[in-house]
Amino acid sequence: MSAKEEIRVKVSLGDDKVPEKITWNAPGPEGKNQEAKAMLLSFFDKKTRETLRIDLWTKEMQVVEMDRFMYQTLRSLADSYMRATSNQKLAGSLQQFAQFFGEETEIIPRSPKPE
């Protein structure tokens, strides 16, 4: 029998049905009731071959925090895509977009322009 683990996500909603608190836990030393301001969760459906998503953020999530969250997510997606496909060209293009996004949102400093 294979091992199974469970990841739990709890979302507390306000009267307006907007998330006020997101907590999650998973097995591991730091997996006990971690609080988050935002989450992105995607599943690729086996039968329909469609991506199913849950994107949530709390009322207290600031725009600059969302910018940082999206920048880090884009970087991570590029890394995951590279590991999964070994497609250096497309993974590199995604990394370039992540760099552009980070610079435009001022999450990271602008790269020097070549002369």
Give an overview in words.
- The chain is an alpha+beta fold and 115 residues long.
- It has two domains: 1-59, no CATH class; 62-107.
- Helices cover 35% and strands 26% of the residues.
- It has two helices and five strands.
- It has helices at 63-85, 88-104, and strands spanning 8-13, 19-25, 34-36, 38-44, 51-57.
- A three-stranded antiparallel β-sheet has the order 1-2-3, with no helix packed on it. It has a two-stranded antiparallel sheet with strand order 4-5.
- Helix 1 runs antiparallel to helix 2 (88-104).
What is the secondary structure topology, with strand pairs?
Blueprint (H helix, E strand, L loop, with lengths): L7 E6 L5 E7 L8 E3 L1 E7 L6 E7 L5 H23 L2 H17 L11
Antiparallel strand pairs: 1-2, 2-3, 4-5
Helix pairs in contact: 1-2
Query: Which geometry do the CA atoms define?
Result: globular
Total count of domains: 2
Give the strand tally: 5
Biggest beta sheet summary:
3 strands, antiparallel
Beta fraction of the residues? 25-35%
- Determine the N-to-C terminus distance: 61 Å
Give the helix proportion (percent range): 25-40%
Rounded mean pLDDT score = 94
Protein traits:
two-stranded antiparallel ribbon, 115 residues, 2 domains, single chain, 2 helices, alpha+beta, 3-stranded antiparallel β-sheet
Would you kindly provide a brief summary of this structure?
The chain has 115 residues and is α+β, with helices and mostly antiparallel strands. The protein has helices at residues 63-85, 88-104, and strands at 8-13, 19-25, 34-36, 38-44, 51-57.
